[in-house]
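ok so i was messing around last nite and threw this chain in just to see what happens. nothing serious, just curious
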Amino acid sequence: MNQITPPARLEVIPESAPFSEGQRAWLNGFLVGLLELDGAVPLSPEQNAALVQGAVGDGDDGEAPWHDQTMPIAERMKLAEGRPLRRRMMAAMAQQDCGQCGYNCNDYADAIAYKSEARINLCVPGGKETARMLKTLHEELERAPASKSTAPVAASAAPAMVSELGRSRDNPTMAKFLSRRLLNKPGSEKETWHIEIDLDGSGIDYVVGDSFGVVARNDLGLADQIIAVLGASPTTQVDGKSLREVLRDDVSLSPAPDALFELLSFVSGGALREKARSLAQGEDPDGDAANLDVLAALQKFIGVRPHPEAFVEALEPLQPRLYSISSSHNATPGRLSLTVDTVRYTIGKRQRLGLASTFLAERINPGEEFHAYVQKAHGFALPPNPDVPIIMIGPGTGVAPFRAFLHDRAATRATGRNWLFFGHQRSDCDFFYAEEFNAMKVSGHLTRLSLAWSRDGDKKFYVQDRMREVGRDLWNWLADGAHVYVCGDAKRMAKDVERALVDIVAQFGARTTDEAVSFVAELKKKGRYQQDVY
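result:
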C-alpha cells in the first residue's frame, strides 16, 4: 500500500506571538480550518502578522520594558500605562518568569485575560502587592464589554491540556526524601542544608537549570495553635477532611490574606470591624500589617471566631515552593539535590518558620515521600556548544545551579572553560561544597574560582567587588564568547553584579557607559547573560 504523505502543517501564528505553545498550536489549527488554508500557499510574514494582529486585536507591540524582577511594582505599572489589560497584568507580576505559578509571566497574564485560568492568586513572589493589583485588573476585565475586535479568537475555548505527571504544579508526582546534610560549620549565622531526593519510580527527569517544586506541608504545631484560637475542634469536618488536616495540607498560613480580614469584618463589630475593613483594603492602621500571618491576624482580633468552613474558605491555597536544582542527571541519574537556606525569624515573641525550608530541614524524615514536580527553566541553561566558556556568579544558595552545571560539564566531558564566583559571610564556616570545588580546581575542570567573604574583614566584600578586581580577565573571557550566569538575590545582588559588569565592559572594552549598557543588553538578547534570581 502506498503511503500518503500529509502536507506540512501551516504555521499561521508565529512563535513570537504572545501565546503559550498550547494556545499557539490550537490557534494554528483553528485559523487553518477557519480560513480553509489546507494545501494553500504559506502566508508571508506580513500576512502572518496581520492575522496575529486580528487574533490578539489589541495592537500591542510585544515589548515588555517592565520585565525586570528588580523593579518596584509602581515603576512596572507606570511602564505599562496605556497597554492592553493582559500586558498590565503581566507588569503586575513580581519575579518575572520564575515559574512558581506554573506559567511564565506573559502566558499567565494571557491566561487570566483570556479567561482560560480562573485563579489570580498564583504569583507567589508578588505577594499581596501583585494579588491586589491583579484583583483590581481582573475587576476591570469583568466590567469590560465583550468585543470581537479585542477578544482573542476563542482562546478560552481551547481544549485544556493536562501536563505530564511531575511536569507541573497541577500534576505533581511522589518523590522520596533521602537525606539532609548541614553545609555550614560551627560559628555560622546561617543554616543551609544539602538535600538529597530519590527520583526512582517518580517518572521525573530534568536538565540542569531546571527548578524543583516542593509541595510542603505546614507545621502541625502552627495548625494546632490556630485551631485553639478559633475555639474549634481539630476533627471538625471541612470538605471531607478534618480541620487539622486541611490546615496542614491545603491552605497557606502566611501571610494573612485580604479575604480573611473581610471575613473578620463580617463577624465582628465596632472598632474591630473598622480595623478589619481597613486591613482588607490594604491599609495599615496599627503599622503591623506586614507582620500578620494567619495566626497573628486571629490573635489581633482575639475573641472573634469565624466558623471553620468560612475561615478555611477565606485562606489562600497552599503554594508549592521552587528551588534551583544543584545536581546533574548525567552525573547522578535517579537522584536530585537541592541547596536550601532554612528560614527562621522572630516577630515579637513568636518564631516564624519558612514553609518548605523547615519542611525539608526538620519535618520530613528519610524514606518519606512528598509531592513534587520539575519546573522547566525559562532561558537558563548551559550553552548548546560544550566548548563555550562560562562565567557563573552565585553567592550563598545561588551557587546551587552552578554546582549542577559543573557536575554536568564533567559528566559530559565538555571542554569549555569554567569560572565560578562564590561568596558568603565567612570563609571558615560558609564555604559550601568547598572540597568539591577545590578538587575541581586542582583537576583543572574548574578553571578559576573567585571567592568573596563579606564578614572576614573590616569592610564588607562581595562577589561584585571581586569581579571588579579581576575585570580585565573577565573582559577577555567575554571577548572569547563566554556566557555569563547569575543566580541569587534579585533586589540587590543581581543589580550590583550587572552594574559591575557594565563598568568592566566600559573600562576594559573601551566603551562609553551607554555603549557598555547596550553591550550587556545585547548579551541578554543573545542568551549570553542569563539570570535565575529571586
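not much to say yet. The longest helix spans residues 127-143.
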